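Researcher: Before we compare anything, I want clean individual predictions. No alignment, no superposition, just each chain on its own. First chain goes here; please echo the sequence and then give the structure tokens.
Model: Echoing the first chain and its structure:
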Amino acid sequence: MRRFLIRSMHILLPLALLAAAVVLRIEEPAFFRQQQMWVFDLGNKLWPREFDTDGGVRIVDIDDESLEKFGQWPWPRTRMAEIIYRLQQAGALAIVFDIVFAEPDRTSPKNIVEIWPDIPDYKDLREQVRTMPDHDEAFAQTIKWTRNTVTGFALASGEAPRRPVQKGNFAFSGPDPRSFVYRFAGGIANLKPFEQAAAGNGNFNMVPEGDGIIRRVPLVVGYEMGGARADDRLYPSISLEALRVAQGARTMTIKSTGGSGETGFGEQTGIVSIKVGRKVVPTDGEGRIWVQYTGHRTERFVPVWKVLDESVDKSLLDGHIVLIGTSAAGLLDLRSTPLDPALPGVEVHAEIIEQVLKEQFLSRPDWSKGAEIAYIIAVGLLLTFLLPRFGALWCAMAGAASVFAIVGGSVHAYREYKLLLDPVYPSIAVLGVYLSASLISYIRTEAERRQVRGAFSQYLSPALVDQLAENPDQLQLGGETKPMTFLFCDVRGFTAISETFKSNPQGLTKLINRLLTPLTNVILARKGTIDKYMGDCIMAFWNAPLDDEEHAIHACESSLAMFKALDVLNEERRLEAEAEGVPFLPLNVGAGINTGECVVGNMGSEQRFDYSVLGDPVNLAARLESQSKNYGVKIVIGPETAKAAEGKYALLKLDLIQVKGQSVGVEICGLQGDADYAASPEFVAIKDKHDAMLEAYYAQDWDKAVARIAECRALTNGEMPELYDLYDERIAEFRENPPPEDWDGVFVATTK
């Protein structure tokens, strides 16, 4: 009977796993779709679309050199009209603005006179200037004259002040596609005269995937008028509208099939394709085109200054769809793509137009999900029933062959037919069936649990180790992201102390152990985990491996208790020094605490690993510990820790600082004491004066700030001289060299 059960497990367990794999593939959770996207990204990276210098698209670039030649942005609409005129004369098929002209031209004569001083002598001149041609009118007339200009607008979820003008018409083949497309209720449109004069009007909208990468771009979107879906208008993307205008077409035909979304086995319902002129563009069910990128190519770009001074080679523009966009610093509309982390949005539109013109389309065929499920079932059943008969080695070879086959097939389908097939999940499912049948996963899991239990006994309290041993599921192996609090503690002036032990290194080791032991006990007693000792420094964290909802509070408690323990140790050492007749050097420490999301788990190599953390909040905690000596306080805490500690501890705001290695400033505070001290009249008075000093400092009222500093020094009895010396020095420097107009008060630290 026992033998029968063991043999049955080789069948039942793989079959259960196989069934689960099929169900998950049918349901397709979000993380499966993300995994597919990474696979498709890899294909685009390995085999990008070949760039054709005569791809039919050019980008007229408002670059930094053009701004240097013709002045800051925005340019007068008369200059924009001149650009259109030059492009028309150069033979552009369509002129497409990747720019919104939502406001009147501030340089128009009638607008300029409004900002003139109200001086009687200007009256006649003011009236004469008002009669001069309006820049916006000239721009609209030029747009109308070209008969091939396309304006662009952006849609969003908020209510729009103006609805965009609909230029092209849509025809439907199949069900009404408005139930399938992305819908918006507002946005930013051009001034009405511009859109009315234009031959086309399209939206810029790109809807990124969950990881922020643009892989698919909607060719058509819906606009809900007054929240009534039945009154939706459809608007084409700017790339689709450019193709329509370039081909002289009036109507775009949307082909769709019944239902919404996808069926369980991959038969696509929703939008199938969009016909514009002579081009039929395959899409996914929501009307999005898969973009196969070439990556950034400078050959697409023509500087606008060359168009304006007529030095451009007109053959670059003749017969091309010309997009007008910008690569100038500060004006960039950057998008993340599989090939470029920051690609100008106008270049994404150019890539789409090129694909349509060359009819080079990526597609995820409607039979793809069914084929992948059939593969999982066929190979999974084969391995399940062959493994008991032929053994693990032969089945491993068969499974490896099947994996090579699907990977090779998907690569061939991508390269030759531009089909997106996922080889990864089916391969993983097959591998899971094989491993479950051989029970390897179970053996490895048990070994890993024993290893972790042994490792954690080194840096967790015995109570926590016991809790983990009883509930191992509370520990996620391999790493997880969660909010945590980190503490760094370091000895101040340790070099001077160590010099007194030159002839007695064993005594120095004993002193370090004598210091670290009580500090460690304080941390462990408050649910902390010791990450590592770095000489005379301690790194600890909270909320891992076991959850601790009050991790920031426990870290603050620990830091205050550490200083109490240090006072006890220093008193013991002072009495010992007096008895021995030797000089006494007290031990002083500084601490930094920060809270934030990090990855925590087993990290290292296959031969040796450690349970540790990674993330920017860890680095900030270390920097805050270093800053404690600069600000003359014992404990410096970060902004998230301060939020948790507000009202529970005595906190003084120290500064807005951008620490070394960081790109943004953060508000840091000094942890001065517990709740009793926070409520004391002494601290309340100090905090009021200190906050008033900072308010004056950030308002650049230097005299008032200096006066408040003097009051703070008096109230603190000179306990934090470094802090107020620091602000006195800054104010003196700012008196000589005032901060810029856009100064945000952030101090940029140049040292750790």
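Researcher: Okay. Second chain, same rules.
Model: Second chain and its structure:
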Amino acid sequence: MSATTEAQHAAPRTLGLIHRQLDHYPPTGLRMRYLAITVLATITLYYELYVNGSVSTLILANLHASFTFFAVTTAIGSLIGAFGSLLAGLADRFGRANLVVFGLLFAAVFVEFLLPIVTNKWLFAFEGFVVGFVEGICLVATPALIRDFSPQVGRATAMGFWTSGPVLGSLIVAIVGTITIPAAVSASHDNRFWTHEYRICGVVGIVVFLIAFFWLRELSPRLRDQLMVTMRDRALIEARAKGLDIEAALRNPFGQLMKPDIVISAFAISVFLLIYYAAVGFLAIYMVTVFGFSLHEANSLANWEWAANAVSVILVGILSDRIRVRKPFMVFGGVTGAAMTILFLYQFGRHPSYATMAAILAISSITLGIAYVAWMASFTETVEARNPALIATGLAIWGWIIRLVVCVSALLVPVVVTSVTPLVTYGNNVVAYAAQYKTQLAWAQAHPKIVDAATLYAPQLTYATEYAPELTFLEKNATLVTEASKYPTNAVPAKLQGQLIAAAGGGAKGIQVLTTLNAHQAQIESVIYSAGALLPLEPYAKELTALSKIPPSVTTYLTEHGTSVQTASAEAARQWQHWWYVCLGGIIFFLLTIPLLRGRWSPRAAKQDEDEHEAMVQAELEKLGQPQEA
């Protein structure tokens, strides 16, 4: 038992809602509370950032935005978030907790009150930029807090919980979407339904902000700016803190950390995560447009992907800490992740079942999570090896690079995948019309020459129906009509005129036939002159009549967009497949950079390092005259 009492490590009573720094390392109970609040904040921020993914097709339709617009604004948002991450590097000097607390407030206000009332795609994009900027700051501040409260021997476990934040944020998006989005919402044209998902998310954000506002704390700079390998380092850290030169440790922070092991490793994990960001931003889109799943099913598939990842990252963190190594986990996760990516590539152009797709997504997500958790632990340890006072700066470099990579990738996706806009913008209506008029359209596709002829002679076909009594009269009374044609219209002899009226049906009916014949002579003659072309169409009169009953607006819509939708549908699988090859290349590059990071490959060597560190700590405590751990 340490001679330093629990009371000494408890949070001072003078702490307020703005001044949150602890002057003593907290006991285990309080430390777990601060870690839990940090993870909860991370989950919430990512939930708010990713909520659009569950209703992306509805947002595009409702705000009249193309997929290119969606992708480009996503890229700009990532770029803005990159500079938010750089700004968060100041957390080494000014602290982390308030950045998280007030970041939660801003994000919640925008998601709950401002984004749902937007009716313009430009305003929606701008407000999304604000949320992205805040998330970019918190991406740095939250893992920095996690690192501060977790020694290296428990770092992978702590980072496993932090890594579950983005994953659980994605999972919550998928679960809430699965529960609250009706299966037929895309067909119902209730495109404003997307605001419903934002309202739910905003309420959650407000609640978590209040929790963090009242209870989140952080270590003072003198405590957090030191290397802590085990919990037994606590007494030594507090003793050193009395004489630590903070200003010297923080001098030229980016100059100290812009080194190959930091920069290349940050870039490597960024391209490794291309597959994750594709899933976060576009999973609903490519599951609907490529594999034919409904929006409801797409969100349900995401449940499997993110749930599997959320569980695995925590378990892997615990296991990595238990055997004291990181790199073997990175290799295993990267290699198996590449294998699962190849298996996923094989599905494009096919029609996998729901169960098959769920299994592929879940296993792939697990393997990628294994590598990522181990990398996060190893990266923070690599930064600590250079300067433990610059954790937030190191994470700011990582956050800046990862957002630049996401920005570039978001710009490239619409260049590689051009099929999304016609499928999302026009696909639903084209499919609905095709189903409604399936019989007529199928017959038309099977008889293109008949349809072309009917289109060419459409006026004559209409006249043939409209003036059928007159044409019948002409056909049966050619002699009388020939005799009457010898006289001007108003000079036909009375006897011959009576014969014509009687032949046409007599009385008012006969007079009407003759009147129509005289008034529309040109139209009727055009039918007679086209008789040779119209004769082959007579056997198809019933089908052509049914085809003519399709509303002109539908025919126009299918003419304008049907071909582009069919072309996009045929090309979608191949285009998305190309992007997944890019993602596979990112995984391979990541595997090649693993040796740059700190850490042992062998558990035995790692255990020996820990024992040597323990001996050093005890020796230094003795020199300082501090009580030793029992």
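Researcher: What stands out in the second chain?
Model: The longest strand covers residues 21-22. Additionally, The first helix runs from residue 6 to 9.
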